[in-house]
Amino acid sequence: MKAPWFFYVSLGLAAIACGKSDSAPDKNRPPAVANGRELYGQLCAQCHGKALEGYAADHAPSLINPTFLESVTDEYLTKSITTGRPGTSMAAYSKQLGGPLDAASIERLVRFIRERGNVPAKQLAPIQAAGDLGRGAALYEAQCKTCHGDRTSRGEAVHLANAMFQAQATDPFIRHAIKAGRPGTKMLPFDKLTEQDIADVVAFVRSFAAPAEQQPPAIAQLPPPTGKEPLVIFPGGKEPDWKPRDGRFVPVDAVMKAYEEKRKFIIIDARPASDWMRAHITGAVSIPYHDTNRLAEIPKDTWVIAYCACPHHLSGEVVDALKKLGHAKAAILDEGINDWHRKGYPMTAAQGVEKPAAEPPGHHGHSH
Ligand code: HEC
Ligand code: HEC
Fold it and tell me: Can you give the pLDDT at residue 34?
Protein backbone atom coordinates (compact mmCIF):
# COMPACT_ATOMS: atom_id res chain seq x y z
CA MET A 1 0.00 0.00 0.00
CA LYS A 2 2.00 2.97 -1.22
CA ALA A 3 -0.52 5.45 -2.46
CA PRO A 4 -3.23 7.08 -0.39
CA TRP A 5 -6.41 5.13 -0.73
CA PHE A 6 -9.98 5.99 -0.23
CA PHE A 7 -12.95 4.63 1.55
CA TYR A 8 -16.25 5.44 -0.01
CA VAL A 9 -18.80 5.67 2.70
CA SER A 10 -22.31 5.38 1.43
CA LEU A 11 -25.57 5.74 3.24
CA GLY A 12 -25.64 2.01 3.89
CA LEU A 13 -23.18 0.84 6.53
CA ALA A 14 -22.77 -2.43 4.73
CA ALA A 15 -21.37 -0.49 1.81
CA ILE A 16 -18.23 0.60 3.66
CA ALA A 17 -15.50 -0.85 1.51
CA CYS A 18 -13.08 -2.54 3.84
CA GLY A 19 -9.62 -1.93 2.43
CA LYS A 20 -7.53 -3.44 5.20
CA SER A 21 -8.89 -6.91 5.31
CA ASP A 22 -5.37 -8.34 4.90
CA SER A 23 -4.00 -10.07 7.94
CA ALA A 24 -2.12 -7.07 9.37
CA PRO A 25 -2.03 -7.30 13.17
CA ASP A 26 -5.04 -5.54 14.57
CA LYS A 27 -3.73 -2.52 16.42
CA ASN A 28 -7.08 -0.92 16.91
CA ARG A 29 -8.72 -3.39 19.17
CA PRO A 30 -11.41 -1.94 21.42
CA PRO A 31 -9.95 -1.01 24.79
CA ALA A 32 -11.66 -4.01 26.37
CA VAL A 33 -14.59 -6.16 25.47
CA ALA A 34 -16.78 -3.70 27.17
CA ASN A 35 -20.43 -2.83 27.53
CA GLY A 36 -21.84 0.45 26.24
CA ARG A 37 -21.28 2.30 29.49
CA GLU A 38 -17.63 1.22 29.70
CA LEU A 39 -16.97 2.03 26.05
CA TYR A 40 -18.55 5.43 26.53
CA GLY A 41 -16.40 6.14 29.60
CA GLN A 42 -13.20 5.10 27.85
CA LEU A 43 -13.78 6.70 24.47
CA CYS A 44 -16.43 9.40 24.53
CA ALA A 45 -16.83 11.07 27.94
CA GLN A 46 -13.67 13.15 27.41
CA CYS A 47 -15.61 15.33 24.98
CA HIS A 48 -19.33 14.57 25.36
CA GLY A 49 -19.20 14.63 29.17
CA LYS A 50 -19.65 11.96 31.84
CA ALA A 51 -23.43 12.34 31.76
CA LEU A 52 -23.58 12.69 27.92
CA GLU A 53 -24.49 16.34 28.46
CA GLY A 54 -21.95 17.62 25.92
CA TYR A 55 -19.30 20.34 25.91
CA ALA A 56 -16.63 18.69 28.05
CA ALA A 57 -14.53 19.61 24.99
CA ASP A 58 -15.10 22.36 22.45
CA HIS A 59 -18.04 21.88 20.09
CA ALA A 60 -19.00 18.38 21.32
CA PRO A 61 -22.83 18.49 21.55
CA SER A 62 -25.13 16.82 24.03
CA LEU A 63 -26.00 13.25 23.09
CA ILE A 64 -29.09 13.09 25.30
CA ASN A 65 -30.92 16.28 24.52
CA PRO A 66 -34.60 15.20 24.17
CA THR A 67 -35.25 17.08 20.92
CA PHE A 68 -32.07 15.57 19.49
CA LEU A 69 -32.96 12.01 20.47
CA GLU A 70 -36.58 12.25 19.36
CA SER A 71 -35.38 13.37 15.93
CA VAL A 72 -32.48 10.95 15.31
CA THR A 73 -32.69 7.40 14.16
CA ASP A 74 -30.38 4.73 15.54
CA GLU A 75 -28.91 4.71 12.05
CA TYR A 76 -27.90 8.38 12.37
CA LEU A 77 -26.20 7.64 15.70
CA THR A 78 -24.47 4.58 14.26
CA LYS A 79 -23.20 6.46 11.23
CA SER A 80 -22.05 9.46 13.28
CA ILE A 81 -19.90 7.16 15.41
CA THR A 82 -18.75 5.09 12.42
CA THR A 83 -17.56 7.88 10.13
CA GLY A 84 -17.08 10.70 12.61
CA ARG A 85 -17.10 14.25 11.26
CA PRO A 86 -13.80 14.52 9.36
CA GLY A 87 -12.08 17.84 10.00
CA THR A 88 -13.65 18.20 13.47
CA SER A 89 -12.50 16.53 16.68
CA MET A 90 -15.15 13.80 16.15
CA ALA A 91 -13.07 10.91 14.77
CA ALA A 92 -14.25 7.90 12.81
CA TYR A 93 -14.53 5.17 15.44
CA SER A 94 -15.17 2.19 13.18
CA LYS A 95 -12.42 -0.36 12.70
CA GLN A 96 -12.84 -0.26 8.93
CA LEU A 97 -11.74 3.36 8.98
CA GLY A 98 -8.89 2.80 11.45
CA GLY A 99 -10.82 3.41 14.66
CA PRO A 100 -11.12 1.09 17.67
CA LEU A 101 -14.71 -0.20 17.39
CA ASP A 102 -16.34 -3.11 15.60
CA ALA A 103 -19.98 -2.93 14.54
CA ALA A 104 -21.21 -4.74 17.66
CA SER A 105 -19.45 -2.26 19.96
CA ILE A 106 -20.91 0.68 18.05
CA GLU A 107 -24.34 -0.87 18.43
CA ARG A 108 -23.79 -1.23 22.20
CA LEU A 109 -22.89 2.46 22.34
CA VAL A 110 -26.01 3.45 20.43
CA ARG A 111 -28.14 1.42 22.83
CA PHE A 112 -26.36 3.03 25.79
CA ILE A 113 -27.07 6.53 24.43
CA ARG A 114 -30.74 5.66 23.87
CA GLU A 115 -31.11 4.17 27.34
CA ARG A 116 -29.43 7.10 29.05
CA GLY A 117 -31.48 9.63 27.12
CA ASN A 118 -34.62 7.55 27.44
CA VAL A 119 -36.29 9.30 24.46
CA PRO A 120 -37.32 7.17 21.49
CA ALA A 121 -37.17 8.45 17.92
CA LYS A 122 -40.50 9.76 16.65
CA GLN A 123 -42.03 10.35 13.24
CA LEU A 124 -41.02 13.83 12.01
CA ALA A 125 -43.01 16.22 9.86
CA PRO A 126 -41.57 16.84 6.41
CA ILE A 127 -40.52 20.26 5.07
CA GLN A 128 -43.73 22.15 4.33
CA ALA A 129 -42.77 24.34 1.34
CA ALA A 130 -40.36 24.58 -1.57
CA GLY A 131 -37.21 26.37 -0.35
CA ASP A 132 -35.77 29.56 -1.85
CA LEU A 133 -31.98 29.49 -1.69
CA GLY A 134 -31.49 33.26 -1.85
CA ARG A 135 -33.90 34.00 1.00
CA GLY A 136 -32.42 31.08 2.92
CA ALA A 137 -28.89 32.47 2.55
CA ALA A 138 -29.96 35.82 4.00
CA LEU A 139 -31.79 34.19 6.91
CA TYR A 140 -28.89 31.88 7.64
CA GLU A 141 -26.39 34.71 7.54
CA ALA A 142 -28.48 36.73 10.00
CA GLN A 143 -29.70 34.02 12.37
CA CYS A 144 -27.48 30.94 12.26
CA LYS A 145 -23.97 31.67 11.06
CA THR A 146 -22.49 33.09 14.28
CA CYS A 147 -23.01 29.74 15.97
CA HIS A 148 -22.82 27.25 13.10
CA GLY A 149 -20.31 28.83 10.73
CA ASP A 150 -20.46 28.10 7.03
CA ARG A 151 -18.47 26.20 4.43
CA THR A 152 -15.13 27.83 5.30
CA SER A 153 -15.58 28.92 8.90
CA ARG A 154 -16.97 27.35 11.98
CA GLY A 155 -18.65 28.52 15.16
CA GLU A 156 -19.08 27.02 18.61
CA ALA A 157 -21.94 24.71 17.59
CA VAL A 158 -22.11 21.59 15.38
CA HIS A 159 -20.61 22.33 11.96
CA LEU A 160 -23.57 21.99 9.58
CA ALA A 161 -21.32 22.21 6.49
CA ASN A 162 -19.48 19.01 7.46
CA ALA A 163 -19.82 16.45 4.67
CA MET A 164 -20.76 13.67 7.09
CA PHE A 165 -23.37 15.81 8.84
CA GLN A 166 -24.81 16.49 5.41
CA ALA A 167 -24.81 12.79 4.56
CA GLN A 168 -26.41 11.80 7.87
CA ALA A 169 -28.99 14.49 8.59
CA THR A 170 -32.37 14.48 6.82
CA ASP A 171 -34.37 17.62 6.02
CA PRO A 172 -37.04 16.79 8.66
CA PHE A 173 -34.23 16.39 11.24
CA ILE A 174 -32.91 19.87 10.42
CA ARG A 175 -36.43 21.34 10.43
CA HIS A 176 -37.11 19.79 13.83
CA ALA A 177 -33.94 21.30 15.33
CA ILE A 178 -34.96 24.75 14.07
CA LYS A 179 -38.57 24.47 15.27
CA ALA A 180 -38.00 22.78 18.59
CA GLY A 181 -34.50 24.02 19.44
CA ARG A 182 -32.43 22.06 21.92
CA PRO A 183 -33.72 22.87 25.43
CA GLY A 184 -31.02 23.86 27.88
CA THR A 185 -28.53 24.81 25.13
CA LYS A 186 -27.91 27.94 23.07
CA MET A 187 -30.06 26.44 20.30
CA LEU A 188 -33.38 28.17 20.96
CA PRO A 189 -36.59 27.26 19.12
CA PHE A 190 -37.02 29.62 16.16
CA ASP A 191 -40.73 30.08 16.69
CA LYS A 192 -40.91 33.35 14.73
CA LEU A 193 -39.83 31.65 11.50
CA THR A 194 -42.66 30.63 9.16
CA GLU A 195 -42.72 27.26 7.44
CA GLN A 196 -41.59 29.09 4.30
CA ASP A 197 -38.63 30.63 6.18
CA ILE A 198 -37.64 27.23 7.54
CA ALA A 199 -37.84 25.65 4.08
CA ASP A 200 -35.61 28.45 2.76
CA VAL A 201 -33.01 28.04 5.52
CA VAL A 202 -32.97 24.27 5.11
CA ALA A 203 -32.43 24.70 1.36
CA PHE A 204 -29.44 26.93 2.14
CA VAL A 205 -28.02 24.52 4.74
CA ARG A 206 -28.29 21.82 2.07
CA SER A 207 -26.24 23.92 -0.33
CA PHE A 208 -23.20 23.16 1.89
CA ALA A 209 -23.33 19.51 0.77
CA ALA A 210 -21.00 18.13 -1.87
CA PRO A 211 -22.54 18.25 -5.35
CA ALA A 212 -24.71 15.25 -6.12
CA GLU A 213 -22.12 13.76 -8.47
CA GLN A 214 -19.67 13.56 -5.54
CA GLN A 215 -22.09 11.62 -3.35
CA PRO A 216 -21.55 9.59 -1.31
CA PRO A 217 -18.78 11.71 0.23
CA ALA A 218 -15.39 10.05 0.32
CA ILE A 219 -13.17 9.82 3.38
CA ALA A 220 -9.64 10.13 2.07
CA GLN A 221 -7.11 8.16 4.08
CA LEU A 222 -3.42 7.32 4.13
CA PRO A 223 -2.36 3.72 4.80
CA PRO A 224 -2.77 2.74 8.48
CA PRO A 225 0.14 3.23 10.88
CA THR A 226 2.37 0.14 11.19
CA GLY A 227 3.47 0.81 14.77
CA LYS A 228 7.06 0.75 13.52
CA GLU A 229 7.35 4.38 12.44
CA PRO A 230 10.46 5.95 14.01
CA LEU A 231 9.60 7.76 17.23
CA VAL A 232 12.18 10.53 17.30
CA ILE A 233 12.28 13.31 14.73
CA PHE A 234 15.73 14.79 14.05
CA PRO A 235 17.52 12.23 16.30
CA GLY A 236 20.83 14.12 15.89
CA GLY A 237 19.38 17.47 16.98
CA LYS A 238 19.72 19.47 20.19
CA GLU A 239 17.08 19.32 22.90
CA PRO A 240 14.23 21.85 22.47
CA ASP A 241 14.45 24.78 24.89
CA TRP A 242 10.75 25.49 25.36
CA LYS A 243 9.30 26.09 28.83
CA PRO A 244 5.79 24.61 28.91
CA ARG A 245 3.16 26.90 30.40
CA ASP A 246 1.90 25.39 33.70
CA GLY A 247 4.48 22.67 33.07
CA ARG A 248 2.04 21.30 30.49
CA PHE A 249 1.37 23.35 27.33
CA VAL A 250 3.67 24.37 24.46
CA PRO A 251 2.23 26.72 21.80
CA VAL A 252 2.22 25.59 18.17
CA ASP A 253 4.61 28.39 17.18
CA ALA A 254 7.21 27.23 19.74
CA VAL A 255 6.91 23.65 18.51
CA MET A 256 7.23 24.84 14.92
CA LYS A 257 10.37 26.78 15.86
CA ALA A 258 11.92 23.62 17.34
CA TYR A 259 10.84 21.77 14.21
CA GLU A 260 12.53 24.30 11.93
CA GLU A 261 15.68 24.19 14.06
CA LYS A 262 15.65 20.39 13.72
CA ARG A 263 15.57 19.82 17.46
CA LYS A 264 15.31 16.26 18.73
CA PHE A 265 11.83 15.37 19.99
CA ILE A 266 8.87 13.03 19.60
CA ILE A 267 5.42 14.03 18.39
CA ILE A 268 2.49 11.81 19.39
CA ASP A 269 -0.86 11.92 17.62
CA ALA A 270 -3.27 11.00 20.45
CA ARG A 271 -6.40 10.73 18.27
CA PRO A 272 -7.86 7.47 16.96
CA ALA A 273 -5.68 6.20 14.10
CA SER A 274 -8.49 7.01 11.65
CA ASP A 275 -7.62 10.67 12.15
CA TRP A 276 -3.85 10.06 11.79
CA MET A 277 -4.70 8.32 8.51
CA ARG A 278 -6.51 11.42 7.32
CA ALA A 279 -3.89 14.02 8.20
CA HIS A 280 -1.11 14.25 10.79
CA ILE A 281 1.87 16.41 11.64
CA THR A 282 4.73 15.17 9.50
CA GLY A 283 6.82 12.81 11.65
CA ALA A 284 4.11 12.28 14.29
CA VAL A 285 3.55 8.71 15.48
CA SER A 286 0.06 7.38 16.14
CA ILE A 287 -0.44 6.43 19.80
CA PRO A 288 -4.20 6.82 20.37
CA TYR A 289 -5.55 7.75 23.80
CA HIS A 290 -7.36 4.43 23.90
CA ASP A 291 -4.38 2.23 22.99
CA THR A 292 -1.23 3.48 24.66
CA ASN A 293 0.96 0.34 24.69
CA ARG A 294 3.57 1.99 22.53
CA LEU A 295 4.27 4.56 25.26
CA ALA A 296 6.50 1.91 26.87
CA GLU A 297 8.97 2.45 24.01
CA ILE A 298 9.36 6.19 24.60
CA PRO A 299 12.83 7.13 25.90
CA LYS A 300 12.65 9.21 29.11
CA ASP A 301 15.42 11.60 28.07
CA THR A 302 13.59 12.87 24.97
CA TRP A 303 10.91 15.57 24.87
CA VAL A 304 7.44 14.45 23.82
CA ILE A 305 4.69 16.68 22.41
CA ALA A 306 1.25 15.07 22.22
CA TYR A 307 -1.61 16.58 20.25
CA CYS A 308 -5.28 16.12 19.42
CA ALA A 309 -7.95 18.34 17.86
CA CYS A 310 -10.21 19.10 20.80
CA PRO A 311 -7.52 20.61 21.61
CA HIS A 312 -6.33 19.21 24.99
CA HIS A 313 -8.49 16.34 26.10
CA LEU A 314 -7.03 13.35 24.33
CA SER A 315 -3.46 14.69 24.25
CA GLY A 316 -3.86 15.39 27.98
CA GLU A 317 -4.66 11.72 28.62
CA VAL A 318 -1.51 10.62 26.78
CA VAL A 319 0.65 13.14 28.64
CA ASP A 320 -0.82 11.97 31.96
CA ALA A 321 -0.08 8.36 31.01
CA LEU A 322 3.52 9.33 30.20
CA LYS A 323 3.89 11.17 33.51
CA LYS A 324 2.62 8.06 35.28
CA LEU A 325 5.38 6.10 33.55
CA GLY A 326 7.90 8.56 34.98
CA HIS A 327 8.39 10.93 32.03
CA ALA A 328 9.11 14.49 33.05
CA LYS A 329 9.50 15.80 29.49
CA ALA A 330 5.98 15.46 28.13
CA ALA A 331 3.71 18.31 27.10
CA ILE A 332 0.60 19.14 25.09
CA LEU A 333 0.50 21.01 21.77
CA ASP A 334 -1.48 23.92 23.15
CA GLU A 335 -3.83 24.96 20.34
CA GLY A 336 -4.04 21.45 18.86
CA ILE A 337 -3.49 20.07 15.39
CA ASN A 338 -6.18 22.11 13.64
CA ASP A 339 -4.37 25.34 14.43
CA TRP A 340 -1.06 23.83 13.26
CA HIS A 341 -2.75 22.71 10.03
CA ARG A 342 -4.44 26.09 9.43
CA LYS A 343 -1.08 27.83 9.79
CA GLY A 344 0.31 25.75 6.94
CA TYR A 345 2.89 23.98 9.14
CA PRO A 346 4.22 20.58 7.94
CA MET A 347 1.42 18.03 7.51
CA THR A 348 1.16 14.64 5.87
CA ALA A 349 -2.37 14.38 4.54
CA ALA A 350 -4.39 12.08 2.34
CA GLN A 351 -5.27 13.39 -1.07
CA GLY A 352 -8.02 15.99 -1.09
CA VAL A 353 -7.86 16.77 2.66
CA GLU A 354 -8.29 20.49 3.17
CA LYS A 355 -7.35 22.80 6.02
CA PRO A 356 -9.93 22.75 8.82
CA ALA A 357 -12.57 25.49 8.80
CA ALA A 358 -11.47 28.69 10.57
CA GLU A 359 -12.41 29.09 14.24
CA PRO A 360 -14.52 32.10 15.24
CA PRO A 361 -12.58 35.24 16.21
CA GLY A 362 -11.69 35.31 19.87
CA HIS A 363 -11.80 31.54 20.12
CA HIS A 364 -8.62 30.38 21.79
CA GLY A 365 -9.26 26.71 21.71
CA HIS A 366 -9.06 26.30 25.48
CA SER A 367 -12.08 24.78 27.11
CA HIS A 368 -10.43 24.51 30.47
C1 HEC B 1 -12.27 14.46 20.88
C2 HEC B 1 -13.63 14.80 21.19
C3 HEC B 1 -14.70 13.78 20.89
C4 HEC B 1 -14.70 12.45 21.25
C5 HEC B 1 -13.65 11.68 22.04
C6 HEC B 1 -15.95 11.92 20.73
N7 HEC B 1 -16.68 12.90 20.12
FE8 HEC B 1 -18.51 12.70 19.26
N9 HEC B 1 -18.44 14.59 18.60
C10 HEC B 1 -17.44 15.50 18.91
C11 HEC B 1 -17.72 16.74 18.23
C12 HEC B 1 -16.87 17.98 18.30
C13 HEC B 1 -18.91 16.54 17.49
C14 HEC B 1 -19.61 17.55 16.60
C15 HEC B 1 -18.83 17.72 15.32
C16 HEC B 1 -18.69 19.18 14.95
O17 HEC B 1 -17.80 19.82 15.54
O18 HEC B 1 -19.42 19.64 14.10
C19 HEC B 1 -19.34 15.18 17.77
C20 HEC B 1 -20.51 14.61 17.25
C21 HEC B 1 -21.01 13.39 17.64
C22 HEC B 1 -22.31 12.86 17.27
C23 HEC B 1 -23.33 13.57 16.40
C24 HEC B 1 -24.16 14.46 17.29
C25 HEC B 1 -25.11 15.41 16.58
O26 HEC B 1 -25.74 16.23 17.26
O27 HEC B 1 -25.24 15.33 15.35
C28 HEC B 1 -22.45 11.66 17.89
C29 HEC B 1 -23.64 10.74 17.83
C30 HEC B 1 -21.22 11.42 18.63
N31 HEC B 1 -20.37 12.49 18.46
C32 HEC B 1 -20.98 10.31 19.41
C33 HEC B 1 -19.74 10.02 19.98
C34 HEC B 1 -19.43 8.77 20.63
C35 HEC B 1 -20.40 7.64 20.87
C36 HEC B 1 -18.11 8.84 21.00
C37 HEC B 1 -17.25 7.75 21.62
C38 HEC B 1 -17.09 6.56 20.82
C39 HEC B 1 -17.62 10.14 20.61
N40 HEC B 1 -18.64 10.82 20.00
C41 HEC B 1 -16.34 10.60 20.88
C42 HEC B 1 -16.33 15.28 19.69
C43 HEC B 1 -15.94 14.05 20.19
C1 HEC C 1 -26.76 30.98 19.70
C2 HEC C 1 -26.20 29.90 18.93
C3 HEC C 1 -27.05 29.22 17.87
C4 HEC C 1 -27.80 29.81 16.89
C5 HEC C 1 -27.99 31.29 16.61
C6 HEC C 1 -28.35 28.71 16.12
N7 HEC C 1 -27.94 27.52 16.63
FE8 HEC C 1 -28.40 25.70 15.89
N9 HEC C 1 -27.44 24.81 17.47
C10 HEC C 1 -26.72 25.48 18.42
C11 HEC C 1 -26.21 24.52 19.36
C12 HEC C 1 -25.34 24.82 20.56
C13 HEC C 1 -26.65 23.23 18.92
C14 HEC C 1 -26.38 21.89 19.58
C15 HEC C 1 -27.13 21.79 20.88
C16 HEC C 1 -26.92 20.46 21.61
O17 HEC C 1 -25.89 20.30 22.27
O18 HEC C 1 -27.81 19.60 21.54
C19 HEC C 1 -27.42 23.47 17.72
C20 HEC C 1 -28.01 22.47 16.98
C21 HEC C 1 -28.53 22.65 15.70
C22 HEC C 1 -28.89 21.60 14.80
C23 HEC C 1 -28.76 20.13 15.09
C24 HEC C 1 -27.38 19.67 14.73
C25 HEC C 1 -27.06 18.29 15.25
O26 HEC C 1 -26.22 17.63 14.66
O27 HEC C 1 -27.64 17.86 16.26
C28 HEC C 1 -29.31 22.19 13.65
C29 HEC C 1 -29.77 21.48 12.39
C30 HEC C 1 -29.26 23.61 13.85
N31 HEC C 1 -28.77 23.86 15.12
C32 HEC C 1 -29.62 24.54 12.91
C33 HEC C 1 -29.65 25.91 13.16
C34 HEC C 1 -30.19 26.87 12.22
C35 HEC C 1 -30.68 26.55 10.82
C36 HEC C 1 -30.10 28.09 12.83
C37 HEC C 1 -30.59 29.41 12.30
C38 HEC C 1 -32.02 29.48 11.97
C39 HEC C 1 -29.48 27.88 14.11
N40 HEC C 1 -29.26 26.56 14.29
C41 HEC C 1 -29.15 28.89 15.02
C42 HEC C 1 -26.53 26.85 18.50
C43 HEC C 1 -27.16 27.78 17.71
Answer: 81
In Å, how far are 74, 133, 153, 245, 266 from 269, measured between CA atoms? 30, 41, 24, 20, 10
What global pTM score does this model have? Answer: 0.90
List the domain range (segments joined by +) for residue 308. Answer: 232-349
With respect to residue 200, please indicate whether it lies within any of the assigned structural domains: yes
* pLDDT tens digits, 336-363: 999 999 999 999 999 989 999 898 776 5
Residue owning the nearest CA to atom 2 of ligand 2: 147
Among all bound ligands, the one having the nearest atom to the CA of 73 is: 1
The answer to whether the CB of 136 is under 6 A from ligand 2 is no
H or E stretch at 218:
strand 218-221
Residue 159 Cβ < 6 Å to ligand 1: yes
- Whether 247 and 193 map to the same domain: the answer is no
When pLDDT is averaged across residues 20-27 and rounded to a whole number, the result is 41
Are 248 and 339 within one domain? Answer: yes
**E strand or H helix that includes residue 319:** helix 313-324
pLDDT digits (tens, 9 = 90+) for 211-255: 766 666 778 899 999 999 999 999 999 999 999 999 999 999 999
